[in-house]
Amino acid sequence: xxDDAPELPSLPARTFAKIDMEPDDRFxxxxxxxxxxxxxxxxxxxxxxxxxxxxxxxxxxxxxxxxFALGFSGxxxxxxxxxxxxxxxxxxxxxxxxFMFTAMGGMTVGSWLAGHLYDVFGSYGPAFMVGVLSNLAxxxxxxxxxxxxxxxxxxxxxxxxxxxxxxxxxxxSVSDQSGGYVIFRISGPSARPLLQRGAFIDLDSSAFFPGxxxxxxxxxxxxxxxxxxxxxAFEVALFRSFAKSFRDWIDATAPSIRF
Length: 259
Known about the structure:
Blueprint: E1 15-21, H1 32-52, H2 58-86, H3 92-121, H4 125-142, E2 148-153, H5 158-167, E3 172-176, E4 181-187, H6 191-198, E5 213-218, E6 221-229, E7 233-239, H7 243-253
Antiparallel strand pairs: 1-2, 1-3, 4-7, 5-6, 6-7
């Protein structure tokens, strides 16, 4: 292998803490549009579908339908913009069509299910109730990734966790993860192409630069990856039980990197 081989220096012991933020827009790291717009539109759709259960005349039906259509007209563009915000633009050519295919498939199944429930119960009431519950499930799934942080301390001091927990009392819950994670530091000119061999995200310097952080998969191992500086130096945090597998992948892949 060339002299530009990635370096993997041993790192000092560290203290890890996982921070789960309470629902508060001030602390969300993702763009606000991505986290808030689909959530609000889904909420509006859920209320609108519930309105069908309360109306029994033509005017009410038209009113509820207009409210539902207003929410739907904002939902699809919101998802498309969210895809663009969360993933590299080079992947839009397959992510957007895949999303649209899945969305249209869901609408098809929903239409069939509504007709089937009408045949069984002789009313659209059960179908509308299923619609409300489906939107409620979507709301529950949307918010699971926001407001989660990993805090690191260069000093392996357990009291640091307690101090952090006190400081964030009422804002977030803090749990000690020090025994569960290990960090690899990979630096040098070939560090980026090495990691790109296994990563499912775009690590080009124009897209991933000092301060960038991503939770992704490298060599089928779940990792949290961030770029430390412009050397470039990267740090990769993963569960301790996968450390040997990750190091074996590095040892097997690094010899193929050439400049």
